[in-house]
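Ticket 4471: requesting a sanity check on a complex prediction with zinc ion. Repro inputs:
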Amino acid sequence: MNLLAVWLGKSVLLALRALGRRGNALPGLVVEKVFPSFLPRALARLDDGVVVITGTNGKTTTTKMIATILGERYRVLTNDSGSNFVRGAITACVEHATWGGRLPFDVGIFELDEAWAVRFVALVPPQRALLLNVMRDQLDRFGEIDTTAGLLGTVAAATTGHVVLNRDDERVAALAERTGAQVSYYGVAPQLRELFPNDEELYGGPVSRSTKPASAELRSLPAGEQPHITLRVAGSDHEVLLRADGPHNAQNAAGAVALALTFGLDTATVLAGLAKVSPAFGRGQSFDVDGRRLVLQLVKNPAGFRQTLRTLDGVTGADAIVVAINDDYADGRDVSWLWDVDFAALAAPASSGAHRSTAGTRAADMAVRLRYDGIDVDEVEPDLEKAVRVAVSAVPAGGHVVVFSTYTAMWALHAILLRIGQAV
Amino acid sequence: MKLIHLYPREMNIYGDTGNVLVLMCRLQWRGLPVEVAPVSVGDPLPHDADILLGGGGQDAAQGEIGADFAGRGAELRAMADDGVVMLTICGTYQMLGHEFVTQEGRRIAGAGVLDVVTHGQAERLIGNNFVDTTDAGRLVGYENHSGLTELGPGVRALGSTQSGRGNNGRDRTEGAVRDNVIGTYLHGPVLAKSPRFADELLRLALARRGSDTDLEPLDDTLAEQAARVAVGRPR
Ligand SMILES: [Zn+2]
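Returned structure tokens:
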């Protein structure tokens, strides 16, 4: 570990804090420029190596699950602040290192988007990788889905110990061919398979069912009075109470368990860890604004948006619905993906009485999209704070507001909501 | 009015299916009956279609449907001669041409409906794009393609690109038109923010049937606002 690099990074962090800024990329950037080999050298010292989690949907929640599970037994370094980048990882290293330059961790667990994962594994070959799914997302960056799958293939090829693959995503399952590492799979039971369409299936292709054995398999979802999910591990079924709801979080839990099992932990330890996971940033966080409860839901691609709308079926008590669409670089400049989402849930009788509005840079685009699904919105307000205030004032005290939001709008809304209300 | 939706499963990337929805709604909102016929690999083409719509796809999907599509060449040319309105985006536009030559030099025959030839290349042309046309005003969409298309004398350009790379990144042309057949690289879907263009297509189809081409005006304030915003955004 380079003592100077740690001191440099820590100084930048301290300076940022003194300015009241939540710095994440900058300390990493400075250290990367001055000590380019800092990260590989620091991470090479971790006894239990590095885990990379990547794929289109579910990275943040799954990473949080794995970090929590492994936290039962290991000292875990993770990029838990929503940052997807190598610089975020450097920042995390310098932030947590001692001033003596020691990194007090056993294992590094990093969430990386597909393109960054490729750059990262070139610097730091991971011992383990968990590859989740490949959906159409940010095609303005990657061009097409097969290209994205190719990026994950590069990650699989660079992994030295164990690759865990989603057997239910054919593009991901096929990456077993690309790696010399050990391979295992996670998956969902055949009868649940239709709830988790891959990209082809979303557009009318037949549902395929994999016969590959899964080291962790999701067997059932919460239903009615029964709040548990059931996971099958090593031939026996276990009930787990997940605090993050929605079918895809249950699927991600199977992935997290399959990855954790590669560390040789026993099933009881793994599942006990899983039950401690709280929702990740923007995945169902709640706020109180003037006595109204507001829930933020991150949406960033057609598959994810559809799944999140499905959870709305259970939240039909929404009195106001806001859809906030930004088109900054991190959101994806191209908003045509909104036409690959079916918004029937927002037109359903249960939400028909709700106040409905669109917000963000592409508020008008979103309103046009809804109009062609038969939904006339009450308000088109690009300004996020105004949009939230209008929605809140349209709802009686004690009412519910659900906000669907793209990535950059989410960060802005988070700051706004902490200012005009409080997290609950 | 009968709409053919060509290869809904394979060619639907970047929201192009939205073009089907836009035309369908704009007919229904005016009380005009409409029927959509999906046509996949191996399905026969309905002979009584007024409008044919096709979208962009993955390069691999384009390979899968290539033979099926080329086999429909004579039929598609006859439909084009007969004045059927066609709006084809990106991959389907390329395949309506004479051929697509891959980067490796492999030649994939197209349907020969449009006098254009496309060459694959490594760089993708990606970004917000708006295009000025003489008949349908400004078209606003998003381009994302790696093929470079050259127009022959048998077609005219759909318009000239203002902010994007267009057909080939070189001559500012975007899209191609012959009779009532239109090919373009504009995703978005293009009709969502270009309502005048959408109605222009409907009018062409109504005129071909000998029907009244007066379309009841719709409130397109939101689409126009969305178009203005898009034009002002970074590429
Ligand atoms: Zn395209």
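Notes from triage: The radius of gyration of chain B is 16 Å. Leaving this open until the requester confirms.
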